[in-house]
Automatic annotation (TrEMBL):
TPR repeat spans: 595-628
Top-level taxon: Bacteria
Name of protein: Serine/threonine protein kinase
PROSITE patterns the UniProt entry points to: PROTEIN_KINASE_DOM, PROTEIN_KINASE_ST, TPR
Keyword Transferase: yes
Pfam family, one: TPR_10
Species classification: Bacteria, Pseudomonadati, Pseudomonadota, Gammaproteobacteria, Lysobacterales
UniProt organism field: Dyella monticola
Key word Nucleotide-binding present: yes
Length: 916
């Protein structure tokens, strides 16, 4: 909103306030005088009054009541347990207003930036959709130089809001001027901006409104990229009519808009390259590359599209806003870099923001910049500047010139190769964005998964593609697959990337990061030993990396965590090791690793059976993540889910509200169309069942199943696993026929996909579920299904899933006893007792089965002694529910031997048992 518009709105609002205090019969005369013949102002005030005039005593329920701005000390309530306390307005844009507010969540208070849709005018569906899209975009971006999302949701009056990290800083141009930065310092600052925008592009986000006011610099000198209000997010409906309408409205800032934006043409990453160049121009020159008279948008558009800008070094005497910007000396290399970003044709600019940042780093290192097509003398001069103390004589310099001519062609070829690689990688990203263009997809919505699949198939046909380029593109696709929860595809694609990656130092960091990503994907899929193997490979590859940063600690934490999950770790050693790792992370100020380190510690305690200690450690993980990223940030949601899992082990009923809160925040912040949403729905359903609310769990399972099917298809492992979970819930409700029908449809896909341990586990779990549907219906079939499940797993517990295997083995043994297959039952029971020794609180099940087996075999005296011993053990501990089972078995064993009434057992008195 322009200054004139803002002033008129404020004037109209003030008059409306005053008029509402008058009797309706006095308002017309009052406004006639106060508006002074300004008919437009008079009409706007009348409209405001009509909109805000209460029809009854509850005018705040009106959908236009919020045309009054919140003032200092005002509080708005949202549909969550948190409220926001307004402090002051920060800024106002085309459709939104941003306030400094205090976020109140219980006793925790946090200053944030709260963005609301503009207060003047009704909220169209287009505006609402674009506003929500901004929240979705921020949710996927996690970079130190990008403002992070804290929460997104809806106020109680129906307006959407976005709560973001509050950045107390200056626009980058003002910061540079206020701190009298020289050209070199400004370039150093801008390299960080390029890193943030490049990160957004790698995550398939175009900003499209880069300008100084959207790049704030803190007092510590850290730039923060903000305001993704008209950014483009591929996989959250950007092909919709709403997004296309926003494009048509051209919600851009003309001084920094590219020629293609001015012309309404298709946009790619080259658009952000241009806008960054326009900002960099102003950072260096003190004014934008093109100027026009106030309101002369056509003149400005013509200049942007047709005229060439002056060099920044020649354009530093313009007065802007009444202030003369300080003149700095701009080197010719920076002139060349800036002008390359501002070329009219997108293909003539830098092929990516990463390449722009690389050229700035070349300038800072006194190396030849790609933007200049210099002579041998130019390149030699840059070499001398780099090595001025090594060049001692004129003769040495002449020899250098001569020698340089020999290698000049090699350098040119190398520069061209780097440029070609960058161009092809960026071309892939731009083609990826184009997949969502309705004109190319016949108006159909193209999901990220479909676009990624298309990209993989397209790469297969490009035989001549440079290996390094292929590796980079494959890695990008692999990371995206993992982000969608499609880990099997992600692992395969990342492994393919490794085969094309070079072995030189330049590729070393990429190799380590890819290996870590593969390890993480294996861990997520439950293949913990595979994860450890890839962490080991990453550790070996790390030897070739000079600047290791936090990679060693990432690997160390990952290995420890997966050792715990694979039940390989000696927990008495693993827990102190994890505590030591946490201290190391603190000492090195690697705060971003703390949440994962605390999570690993929590999982170790969980494996040990100390559920309270696990919950406490996972609470620290949540708090650490919330402190840096926000309570509702996507990464924090993952730690909250782990915390809720620990609470479930302590008390399922208390875990239910935790899971419901996570689901609500996930839907609001991230959306409901990704695999992680299906995972948390499944967690809630399992918890509801554990708390005895089985009827309530079934629709949650069904919802989770449908989300997983929509994301990954009917043959996806997790979708098949969810089908099994829902079937078990139906079995426990006595709806066995429904459960069997669900499960039979999944068997062909499961049988065809048994490559990994986790695939086999899902297949085994489905067979187990089918067995459960046959109990009491066809017990022979039930035993057959349980035996098949045991065989699929190779008659041993999978890593990290001992509890699942214990249940399969228990049901198999129980069915064998019931069907009088006593010899087989004895062998199964021995294995069951070995497995139960690894799980706290499960031994009673195996002991009870042992008594049943002895009774079935007619070994009544042994059954009597065992039942009595087990009863007395549990009675002494106060475990009366378990003791009651052994009491009944004891009586049965005694009666089988004699008609006499059995001697009474010592009474059991309930005691609270902690930990299990």
């Amino acid at each position: 909103m322009g200054d004139a518009h803002s002033e008129r709105y404020r004037q109209a609002k003030a008059l409306a306030h005053a008029a509402l205090d008058l009797d309706p019969t006095e308002r017309s005369a009052f406004l006639t005088v106060r508006c002074g013949g300004d008919a437009e102002l008079f009409n706007e005030v009348q409209w405001l009054i009509a909109s805000l005039e209460p029809d009854d005593s509850s005018f705040l329920d009106s959908d236009l009541a919020y045309l009054f701005e919140p003032g200092a000390d005002d509080v708005v309530e949202v549909d969550t347990p948190r409220n926001y306390h307004f402090i002051r307005r920060l800024e106002e844009g085309g459709h939104g207003v941003v306030y400094l507010a205090e976020r109140c969540n219980g006793d925790v208070r946090q200053q944030i930036a709260l963005k609301l849709l503009h207060l003047a005018g009704r909220l169209s569906e287009t505006m609402m959709a674009q506003f929500r899209a901004e929240g979705a975009i921020l949710a996927r971006l996690n970079h130190p130089n990008i403002v992070h999302l804290i929460e997104a949701g809806t106020l109680q009056d129906g307006r959407p809001f976005i709560a973001m990290e509050y950045v107390d800083g200056l626009p980058i141009t003002d910061y540079c001027s206020a701190h009298s930065l020289n050209a070199r310092q400004r370039a150093e600052l801008f390299v960080k901006v390029c890193a943030a925008v490049s990160y957004a592009h790698q995550h398939l986000v175009l900003h499209r409104d880069l300008k100084p006011s959207n790049i704030l610099v803190t007092a510590e000198g850290e730039p923060k990229l903000l305001d993704f209000g008209i950014a483009r997010l591929l996989d959250h409906g950007d092909t919709s009519a709403a997004c296309r309408t926003v494009d048509a409205q051209r919600l851009l800032t003309p001084y920094y808009a590219s020629p293609e934006q001015m012309k309404g043409q298709a946009l790619t990453t080259a658009t952000d390259v241009y806008s960054l160049g326009a900002v960099l121009y102003e950072v260096m020159a003190g004014r934008p590359p093109f100027l026009a008279k106030t309101g002369e948008t056509f003149e400005l558009a013509h200049s942007v599209c047709e005229k060439e800008p002056e060099k920044p070094s020649h354009a530093q005497t313009v007065v802007l806003g009444g202030n003369v910007n300080k003149v700095i000396s701009v080197p010719g290399d920076l002139d060349a870099i800036v002008l390359k970003t501002l070329r009219k044709r997108p293909e003539d600019r830098y092929t990516s923001v990463y390449e722009l940042g690389t050229d700035l780093r070349r300038f800072l290192a006194s190396r030849p910049v790609a933007a200049r097509r210099g002579s041998v003398i130019y390149r030699s001069r840059r070499f001398v500047q780099r090595n001025r103390w090594k060049i001692a004589t004129i003769s040495a310099f002449v020899l250098l010139i001569t020698g340089f001519a020999v290698v000049r062609q090699v350098q040119l070829q190398r520069t061209q190769l780097e440029r070609d690689r960058a161009e092809q990688v960026v071309a892939f990203i731009n083609n990826f964005f184009a997949e969502a263009d309705p004109s190319k997809s016949r108006g159909e919505t193209v999901t990220v998964r479909e676009a990624l699949d298309t990209s993989v198939h397209g790469l297969e046909s490009k035989r001549s593609l440079d290996p390094e380029i292929r590796a980079t593109i494959l890695a990008t696709i692999g990371y995206a697959y993992n982000g969608l929860g499609l880990n099997k595809k992600g692992i395969a694609t990342l492994q393919a990337a490794l085969t094309y990656l070079g072995n030189g130092p330049a590729s070393a960091v990429d190799r380590v990061n890819i290996l870590i990503a593969i390890a993480n994907a294996h861990s997520t899929d439950g293949n913990f030993r595979e994860a450890i193997a890839y962490y080991d490979k990453a550790e070996n590859a790390l030897q070739n990396v000079s600047d290791k940063q936090d990679l060693p600690d990432q690997i160390s934490i990952g290995k420890l965590q997966n050792s715990v999950l694979a039940a390989d770790a000696n927990l008495d050693k693993a827990i102190p090791a994890l505590r030591a790792e946490i201290e190391t992370v603190r000492e090195r100020n690697e705060e971003s690793l703390l949440p994962e380190a605390y999570k690993s510690l929590g999982l170790a305690y969980q494996s040990k059976g100390d559920y309270q200690a696990a919950f406490d450690a996972l609470t620290l993980a949540v708090n650490s993540s919330a402190k840096s990223k926000g309570f509702d940030a996507p990464s924090t949601l993952e730690f909250r889910a782990s915390q809720a899992q620990a609470q479930k082990l302590l008390d399922p009923a208390k875990a239910i509200p935790l899971f419901k809160s996570i689901i609500a925040d996930h839907a609001r912040v991230i959306g409901t169309s990704d695999m992680s949403y299906a995972v948390i729905l499944n967690d809630l359903a399992v918890t509801l069942g554990g708390a005895g609310q089985r009827e309530a769990s079934v629709p949650i399972y069904e919802q989770a199943r449908q989300v997983a099917r929509a994301v990954a298809g009917p043959e996806d492992r997790f979708y098949l696993q969810l089908t099994g979970n829902e079937a078990i819930a139906l079995v426990k409700l006595g709806r066995k026929a429904e459960a069997a029908q669900l499960l039979q449809g999944t068997l062909p896909a499961l049988a065809a996909h048994q490559q990994s341990g986790i695939d086999k586990l899902v297949y085994a779990h489905t067979l187990y579920s089918l067995g459960a549907t046959q109990l009491g219906v066809n017990d022979a079939n039930a035993e057959r299904y349980f035996a098949q499940a045991d065989a699929v797993l190779g008659h041993k517990a999978p890593d990290g899933y001992v509890d699942v295997y214990e249940e399969i083995l228990y049901q198999l043994t129980n069915a064998q006893v019931h069907n009088k297959h006593y010899g087989q039952a004895e062998a199964s029971l021995q294995r069951l007792e070995t497995v139960e020794a690894q799980l706290p609180g499960t031994a009673a099940r195996g002991k009870s089965l042992h008594v049943d087996l002895l009774l079935g075999e007619g070994k009544y005296a042994q059954a009597e002694r065992l039942a009595k011993d087990d009863y007395e053990t549990d009675a002494a501990l106060g475990n009366c529910s378990k003791a009651a089972i052994f009491s009944a078995q004891y009586e049965q064993a005694v009666k089988k031997q004699s008609a006499e009434h059995p001697a009474p057992l010592q009474p059991c008195v309930n005691k609270k048992v902690s930990g299990v």
